[in-house]
Design goal:
The complex is a heterodimer. By secondary structure, chain A is mainly alpha-helical. Chain A has helices at 4-13, 29-43, 53-68, 74-83, 85-102, and strands at 114-117, 125-128, 133-138. Chain B is built from eight helices and two strands. At the A-B interface, helix 4, helix 5, strand 1 and strand 3 of A face helix 6, helix 7 and helix 8 of B.
Chain lengths: 139, 163
């Protein structure tokens, strides 16, 4: 049974494909603001359903972006598809913060050489030489 | 439920986000409170390993009380949730992983139907953080740590030197 489920899932969604990251300009706040205005205007017309078009497009862009960044894509793309451009604006802000948090530290930002708690959990302390962890452990 | 790993000396658990949401819904929120307590314990222990007073000084029991009996007062769960997201983001800054969005948590909390989804979303971002440590400590041998494992381990915080 457990082996059948992944096979059924693979049959349903097809083979794994490469991510197609959207261009960087898509994740500027102005894109979310324009999408919000467009959907609001469309909601006031007889073609109100078209207002959800921008929601779907933004959700797909978020999905592709997160796949390209190798981050979980379910929560953000679902939230943008459900709540629309306002949540997309939140995503844009969170994305900027996240990318800044995940970027490698420069040499000036790295802590000084010293003994620190072992991040690998194999010893009590491990030596940090100012640029990286070493094999020297204590405790 | 989930896989227990060691992150910088703290015992933490990688859980399936959709299972967390499902259990919260099925148990009418009871599992959500249990999850909230357990994750707060993990964050406290993680903060203790990093010698972070704000994380290590948090009280998981008080946090759980704020969202369970405290929900009748409305304000305690909101304050507790806001502080909780702040602690999660603080831990994620140590691990240099994706940051949880407080705005998205607020949207999910305001749309009451999606309240259980908060557990899944936060657990999903925490999994990303814990997996960074799991990848760094996957090999069992102490003296044969590889260059890749050393490189994958997050850098220490400037004020956390022991000697």
């Amino acid at each position: 049974m457990q082996a059948r489920l992944p096979r059924l899932w693979a049959w349903l969604i097809g083979p794994e494909r490469e991510p197609h990251p959207p261009p960087e300009w898509v994740f500027r706040p102005i894109v979310g603001i324009v999408a919000l205005l467009v959907s609001l205007v469309l909601f006031m017309t007889p073609a109100a359903l078209l207002g959800f078009g921008s929601w779907i497009i933004l959700a797909v862009e978020v999905y592709e972006d997160r796949r390209a960044l190798r981050l979980p894509y379910f929560w953000w793309s679902s939230a943008v598809g459900t709540f629309g451009p306002l949540v997309f604006l939140m995503y844009v802000q969170n994305r900027r913060e996240t990318l800044a948090n995940m970027r490698p530290q420069t040499a000036a930002e790295l802590p000084q050489a010293a003994w620190y708690a072992d991040p690998l959990g194999r010893a009590r302390l491990r030596w940090w030489d100012g640029s990286g962890w070493t094999r020297d452990v204590a405790g | 439920m989930g896989r227990e790993i060691e992150a910088y000396g703290a015992r933490v658990r990688v859980r399936r986000p959709l299972a967390v949401v499902g259990l919260t819904v099925v148990t009418l929120g009871v599992y959500g409170v249990v999850w909230y307590y357990r994750v707060n314990v993990e964050l406290r222990d993680f903060g203790g390993a990093y010698r972070d007073r704000r994380l290590a000084g948090s009280s998981p029991r008080r946090s759980a009380l704020a969202v369970a009996p405290g929900i009748v007062l409305l304000v305690p769960p909101i304050v507790s949730l806001a502080r909780f997201v702040g602690r999660v983001r603080r831990a994620q800054r140590y691990g240099r992983s994706e940051l949880t969005s407080g705005w998205l948590v607020a949207v999910l909390a305001l749309a009451l139907v999606f309240l259980p989804a908060i557990t899944g979303y936060v657990q999903s971002t925490l999994n990303e953080l814990w997996r960074r440590y799991a990848a760094a400590s996957s090999s069992p041998a102490t003296d044969t740590v590889s260059e890749a494992e050393l490189a994958a381990a997050p850098a220490p915080q400037p004020g956390a030197a022991v000697a």
